[in-house]
């Protein structure tokens, strides 16, 4: 569900973001989630065949639960990455709808661009706030966002941590909006740091 929070995905895209899962195991889990009304499955008549999966309204109601698990992770397991440790920035951004609680008067959108390092692809997200809710959409988005924040994976990991700062990233547009929205991740991480000190 976390990996579909940013919008529909093809089966092969889900395989790519879930390393280690077998094709049959993923197919079985997706079929079960479709049968339980948590996902929709759209098959396109293309060669090769294309199948997209998307969250239903029923499953979107679980995003705050995933956000609570993410907050627990921030509280008890967040630390600077060890040498060779991979932090999945995309997975963190996809949890935004359940993790962030923007003020009700905060409205706007921020494009988050995580530049690729070595042979890794660039990641693109649009994080939006409206009426106290955060939404995230992955991939290229039409139209302009109010702000754009661009940084490498390592810079993005630093900006999301307990000592998070947007100092190392390139920010354009409405910096106040970007700081308020991305600050929700930082506040979650700082809560953990305060718990440890107390």
Using only CA atoms, what is the Rg?
Answer: 17 Å
Range of strand content: 15-25%
In round numbers, the mean pLDDT is 84
Give the strand tally.
8
Q: What is the strand arrangement across the widest sheet?
A: 6-5-4-7-8
Largest sheet properties: 5 strands, mixed
SSE order: EHHEEHHHHEEEEHEH
How many DSSP helices? 8
Low-confidence stretches: none
Structural class: alpha+beta
* Oligomer kind: single chain
Report, as a whole number of angstroms, the end-to-end distance: 34 Å
Helix content: 40-55%
Shape field: globular
Task: For this entry, give a set of tags.
198 residues, three-stranded antiparallel β-sheet, globular, five-stranded mixed β-sheet, alpha+beta, 8 helices
List strands and helices in order, with pairings.
Layout: E1 9-10, H1 11-17, H2 23-35, E2 39-44, E3 50-55, H3 57-60, H4 63-77, H5 89-94, H6 96-99, E4 108-115, E5 123-130, E6 133-138, E7 147-152, H7 153-160, E8 170-173, H8 175-197
Parallel strand pairs: 4-7
Antiparallel strand pairs: 1-3, 2-3, 4-5, 5-6, 7-8
């Amino acid at each position: 569900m976390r990996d579909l929070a940013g919008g529909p995905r093809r089966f092969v895209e889900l395989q790519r973001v879930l390393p280690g899962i077998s094709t049959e195991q993923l197919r079985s889990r997706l079929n079960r989630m479709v049968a339980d009304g948590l996902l929709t499955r759209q098959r396109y008549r293309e060669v090769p065949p294309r199948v997209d999966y998307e969250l239903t309204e029923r499953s979107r109601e679980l995003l705050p639960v995933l956000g609570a698990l993410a907050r627990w992770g921030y509280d008890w397991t967040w630390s600077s990455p060890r040498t060779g440790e991979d932090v999945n920035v995309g997975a963190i951004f996809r949890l935004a709808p359940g993790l962030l609680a923007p003020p009700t008067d905060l409205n706007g959108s921020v494009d988050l661009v995580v530049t690729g390092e070595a042979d890794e692809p660039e990641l693109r997200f649009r994080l939006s706030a409206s009426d106290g809710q955060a939404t995230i959409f992955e991939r290229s988005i039409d139209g302009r966002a109010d702000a754009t924040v661009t940084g490498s994976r390592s810079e993005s990991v630093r900006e999301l941590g307990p000592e998070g700062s947007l100092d190392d990233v390139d920010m354009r547009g409405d910096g106040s909006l970007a700081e308020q929205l991305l600050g929700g991740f930082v506040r979650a991480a700082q809560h953990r740091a305060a718990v440890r000190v107390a």
